[in-house]
Amino acid sequence: MTNFSTLGGRPQRLLPLIAALVLAGCASVAELPATPAAPAQFKEAAVAPAGATAPVRTAGDWWRAFNDPVLDDLVTRAAANNTSIQQAAARLAEARALARSVDSDRSVQVGLNGGASRAQGLDRNQSNRPSTLLNAGAGVSYELDLFGRLSGASNAATLDAQGSAALLQSAQLLVQAEVAQNYLTLRALDDERALMRDTVEAYRDTLRLTERRERAGDLAELDVVRVQTEVASTESDALALDRQRALVEHALAVLTGEAASQFSLPSGEWRTALPQIPAGLPSTVLQRRPDVAAAQKTVMAAQARVGVAQTAWFPSISLTGGGGYASPELGDLFKWSARSWGIGALLSLPILDGGRREAGVQSASAQLDGALASYRSQVLVAFREVEDQLASLRLLDEQSVVQARAVSSSARATSLSDTRYRNGYISQLDLLDARRSELRNRRQALQVRSAQYQATVGLIRALGGGWGEVQATAGAEPAAATRVSSAMPTAKALE
Q1: Which of 355, 303, 278, 14 has its CA nearest to residue 163?
Q2: Taking Cα atoms as reference points, which of 372, 367, 368, 362 lies closest to residue 27?
Q3: Which residue, 202, 319, 338, 475, has fewest beta-carbon neighbours within 10 Å?
Q4: Pair 312, 119: CB distance under 8 Å
Q5: Would 296 be classed as within a structural domain?
Q6: Where are the alpha helices (DSSP H) in 216-315?
Q7: What do you get for the CA distance between the two ends of the chain, in Å?
């Protein structure tokens, strides 16, 4: 340690500078706390949902695994016209431009200058006559980045741009998932609407038959009213489904960047394949999530800015140079005798700043703490979303089997009730109850199937847009646990 008491005379003037250098040299970024440890495996087993098998796709074109040309077209249109993607792309372009602007401070700055002035009493001879001074030349400046302030700021801006690129990918994945989920919802509504229309027609046939028998005196008016009630109630449910479909279609229009008034998607049969998510997903699936990557870049940028804030304790050293011509007459401005030049060096180090530099370090550290908390939260959300969708797929797969039995039983009950009613063994009320039960169970089966598609899309999105590193076979054991690497990026690794 230097003994400053031995310094005397002129060297004592360097005490503030030396003290600042010592303080800055002792300052360092504190060790970052670790992020939540990745579990050895997901709590929910990765089971393959029931449905048609579609080709396994890697991240980037995962929606093609559903083998639906209409869905492919909608995703393509959304990629080109969706306003959320365009906004994210604009933010990325802005971040990249800012990174280039910050990095330019590390380069030599060259500029041309020229001017003219006329004054009186300001020259060295204190002349009472007005004088004119014309000048033209070039200036050069360069700041020495001895302590890494400029490179640190450039690195932070570059990390911000990389984070914006990850956010653009996240926006693209979000839009793709929303397009797929809305389209699959619309197709499920189409099937449900078709079921309701068939049911309404069946009730109308029953109503016509009941009215004929009532006019013939075989049935009471109460039987007619009961069927009329069922017809009206079922028509009301059908109209509610029409309303839901219209709203989903309008949402698809916005996602594809088109006006709802000019967007139309005809009703069609629901033939979309249901891809099977393979068991034994790779350990890198969550590291591939763009939102997690963006949060990681934000932490790294915040850490870099802590270092930049700490360099405020160091002096800044700039080199300057200039050359040109200066003359009181325009005609003599560019003569060799009018030439002028100068070079210089500037060292700047604030001594008393009222705590500004310390406040800057504290502010940067607080931003780092916030970025770390956000990153930890993003990792936790990623694990939760995967677990949510795995649990949904497992339970929906079981529910679909049970619901299929309910549909079969209710259809058989309706058939038997219709036969017994026609033979006079049961009342019309019993027949209507059987039909209502069958309709309810068929609708529930369609809704379970729709939920399976929604959960599949949700799982693909939670995995970062694909599962391409593992090519699982169709006969993979459903109960095999999906494993996640315990080497998820930690804040310590970001240093």
Answers
A1: 303
A2: 362
A3: 475
A4: no
A5: yes
A6: 221-255, 290-310
A7: 29
**What whole-number distance in Å separates Cα of residue 189 and Cα of residue 412?**
25
Amino acid code (one letter) for 19: A
Q: Cα separation of 153 and 161, whole Å? A: 12
Cβ atoms of residues 495 and 372 within 8 Å = no
Q: DSSP string covering 420-469, please? A: HHHTTSS-HHHHHHHHHHHHHHHHHHHHHHHHHHHHHHHHHHHTTS--TT
Q: Which residues contact 494 (CB under 8 A, 6 or more apart)?
A: 32, 296, 299, 300, 303
**Does 205 fall in a domain?**
no
In a domain, residue 327? The reply is no
Taking only the tens place, the pLDDT of each residue in 353-410 is 888 889 989 999 999 999 999 999 988 888 888 888 888 988 999 999 999 999 999 9
- The packing angle between helices 428-462 and 149-215, to 10°, is 170
Range(s) of the domain holding residue 412:
27-109+146-194+253-264+271-315+358-494
Residue 207 Ramachandran class (φ > 0 left, ψ -120 to 50 alpha, else beta): alpha
The CATH number of whichever domain residue 373 belongs to comes to: 1.20.1600.10
SS3 116: strand
Residue 130 — φ and ψ, nearest 5°?
Answer: -60, 145
CA–CA dist 206, 428 (Å, integer): 10
Fill in the DSSP letter of residue 126. Answer: -
Q: Taking a C-beta distance cutoff of 8 angstroms, is the pair 313, 20 a contact?
A: yes
DSSP-derived secondary structure for 368-383: HHHHHHHHHHHHHHHH
| Mean pLDDT split into 10-residue runs, the chain, 495 residues | 41 45 43 56 51 49 91 94 93 91 85 77 59 78 83 90 92 94 94 91 85 82 87 92 94 94 88 77 68 91 91 85 73 69 82 87 92 90 87 91 95 91 82 89 94 93 72 32 32 36
| CA atoms of 238 and 248, how far apart (whole Å) | 15
| Crossing angle of the two packed helices 356-422 and 428-462, in degrees rounded to 10 | 150
User: 97 vs 62, 109, 148, CA distance in Å?
Assistant: 31, 18, 21
> How far, in Å, are 27, 322, 473 from residue 483 at the CA level?
41, 64, 17
The letter for the amino acid at 24 is A
Give the 3-state secondary structure of residue 68: coil
**257 φ, ψ to 5°?**
75, 30
| Distance (Å, whole) CA 183 – CA 457 | 11
169 in any annotated domain: yes
